[in-house]
Amino acid sequence: MFPFGLLTSNALFTTVSNAQFLPSQVPYTSENVVEGKRAAKQALQQRLGLETAVLPLVGIITRLTHQKGIHLIKHAIWRTLERNGQVVLLGSAPDPRIQNDFVNLASQLHSTHGGRARLCLTYDEPLSHLIYAGADLILVPSIFEPCGLTQLTAMRYGSIAVVRKTGGLYDTVFDVDHDKERAQAQGLEPNGFSFDGADAAGVDYALNRAISAWYDGRDWFNSLCKTVMEQDWSWNRPALDYMELYHAARKIT
């Protein structure tokens, strides 16, 4: 289930509805997504002790397992910092060895890039909502992902998903440069950035385009935030499709 509950109204789909997880000045709709996300970013930066700066912020909210592409996550963190962005990771690993590896990485990053990187190696639902709201980009580089809710939650908050083309990530994220026809066939507008390979070059291809779009085409990027926030990923359309199939089957029998 979505963290917002099962949604049944298109009107609800344009609003960040879990306001209890966000500071009082932050809740926003698709109509004021730019102002809302700006306030959320500042709140996130202040909460985590990051520089209160106008920089692209990449959020990563995940379990730290091999399925989630932890080697790609590590690379993306360094790539974001190289592009003068900020990065926030929230997640923990069931494997103590992986958890300890990220503890060491966090110690390194907080020492060398304390104003632009923060790794929160725990489970924290309220913080996850603030990251979704405050991030410009949400990275989901899964090796496999049957469905995936992270990218859908990101879009509810007007954050742009950067994903690997696999499973449900491929089904719901349409690359702005390569998937216009595929999106049109689904009655949608392109809504994110994606890559094929499970390697550093793949992550770089999608992440660099996304960060460059933030730097070089802010008006276009902001319009994309509005677009993704208004896309309907509830059960509305699938339910209607099932009803049409049911009535068609009745006519056949």
From TrEMBL:
Functional pathway: Glycan biosynthesis; starch biosynthesis
Enzyme Commission designation: 2.4.1.21
Enzyme class of the recorded protein, top EC level: transferase
Subcellular location: Plastid, Amyloplast; Plastid, Chloroplast
Domain Glycosyl transferase family: 57-173
UniProt GO MF annotations: alpha-1,4-glucan glucosyltransferase (ADP-glucose donor) activity
Secreted among keywords: no
Known catalytic reactions: [(1->4)-alpha-D-glucosyl](n) + ADP-alpha-D-glucose = [(1->4)-alpha-D-glucosyl](n+1) + ADP + H(+)
Keywords from the UniProt entry: Amyloplast, Chloroplast, Glycosyltransferase, Plastid, Signal, Starch biosynthesis, Transferase, Transit peptide
Source domain of life: Eukaryota
CC per GO annotation: amyloplast; chloroplast
One example of a Gene Ontology biological process annotation: amylopectin biosynthetic process
Record keyword Cytoplasm present: no
Signal peptide range in chain numbering: 1-19
Protein family: Belongs to the glycosyltransferase 1 family. Bacterial/plant glycogen synthase subfamily.
Protein name per UniProt: starch synthase
Organism: Parasponia andersonii
Lineage of the organism: Eukaryota, Viridiplantae, Streptophyta, Embryophyta, Tracheophyta
